[in-house]
Amino acid sequence: MSWPTGQFALQFSLRYADYEKYGQCYGKEWMTMFEVTDLKPRIGSRIETDLESLTSGKYSAEILRLIEQRGVLLFRGLDITDEDQLAIANSLGPTGDKDVGVIYKVSQDKEQNPTHYLYNRGNFSWHIDRTDTDVPPHITMLCAKKLAPSDGETEFANTCAAYEDLPEDDKQLIDGLKVLHRVSASFRETVPDPTDEMRELWDIRPDKVHPLVWRHRNGRKSLITSTSGLEVIGMGKDEGAALLAKMMAWATQPEYVYVHDWQLGDLVMWDNTGTMHRARQYDLDCGRLMHRAVVLGDEPFDTEQPPMAA
Ligand SMILES: [Fe+2]
Asked: For the chain, what percent of residues have pLDDT higher than 70?
């Protein structure tokens, strides 16, 4: 057998090095690039591939598997249009949001997002998307269109790993507990003095009761620790608040968190069923803009209760 030479040899050695270093090397065709690099040990991976492979859905099975394992996936330097972003999202499952459409502008600017810019103030608190529903989105993805000149990183926490590591006493304590979620609760810290317009916007969304522990169909469990959690059912107000604060502090320890420092054009997608996220505070007038697409979910927060008919 003769060894490959030239450019081919270079690619071979790079890929072999990646395999050795990370123990992961994906791709069914030899010359097709699909390389995975972990961002932190417990959360986040960067995938290097080409845009055509990504939009074609060629690697959708691998991406779905990786997002379940790693929580957050980063794709960098691909010059992704809205059309591309939708194609990527559609390759992973049915897309859309009946309230805001298929491409939603995440912006604090009234010009960019006249109907929901105030709603986006809640992005600064840890949350799982759409705790005001029975069946939240599976995957949310953002593409960076305009960056904040400073700050504005997005933080992600792995709520599966956080649950796994909980002391056994705490697992027993929270087993079976349910939590009342209210959208306005997500704004308690970042908007302590809301306007009537803000309140009206938040109060459109219904209260929901979800378990504190999400029992996923794949056998995993994760914490449902969004700041929309207001009180623990059947527990005194102070005692419940203390428990929710304790779980939130546990789940956001540095080992479970990946902080994404955005570059223009970055596409970041996350498993909304196994992570929570927040944006770090930035200047509200700076024009920071992300385009969001959502892959719909089919797993209710409470897997023991069938979702209510809409
Ligand atoms: Fe969000």
From this structure: 86
CA of 121 from ligand 1 middle (Å) equals 10
State in Å: Cα 174 to ligand 1 middle: 25
CA of 128 to the centre of ligand 1 (A): 6
272 CA from centroid of ligand 1 (Å): 9
Gap from CA of 5 to ligand 1 centroid (Å): 48
Separation of 124 CA from ligand 1 center, angstroms? Answer: 9
pLDDT tens for residues 151-177? Answer: 999 999 999 999 999 999 999 999 999
Whole-number pLDDT of residue 101: 66
pLDDT digits (tens, 9 = 90+) for 93-117: 999 766 666 888 888 878 887 777 7
- How much distance in Å is there from the Cα of 286 to the middle of ligand 1? 19
Angstrom distance (rounded) from CA 183 to CA 207 = 7
The alpha carbon of 123 and the centre of ligand 1 are apart by a number of angstroms equal to: 6
List the structure tokens of 256: 């479970």
Q: Could you write out the DSSP letters of every residue in the chain? A: -PPP-HHHHHHHHHHHHHHHHHS----SSTT---EEEESSSSS-EEEE--HHHHHHTTTHHHHHHHHHHHSEEEE-S----HHHHHHHHHHHS-B--TTT-SSEEE-S-TTT-TTTTTGGGGGGS-B-TTTTSSS--SEEEEEEEE--SS---EEEEEHHHHHHHS-HHHHHHHTT-EEEE-GGGGGTTT-SS--HHHHHHHHTSPPEEEESEEE-TTS-EEE---TTEEEETTS-HHHHHHHHHHHHHHHTSGGGEEEE---TT-EEEEETTTEEEEEPP--TTS--EEEEEEEPP---SSTTSPPPP-
Residue 167: how many other CB atoms lie within 10 Å: 9
Q: Using the predicted structure, report yes or no on whether residue 201 has a pLDDT greater than 80.
A: yes
Output the CA 116–ligand 1 centroid distance in Å: 13
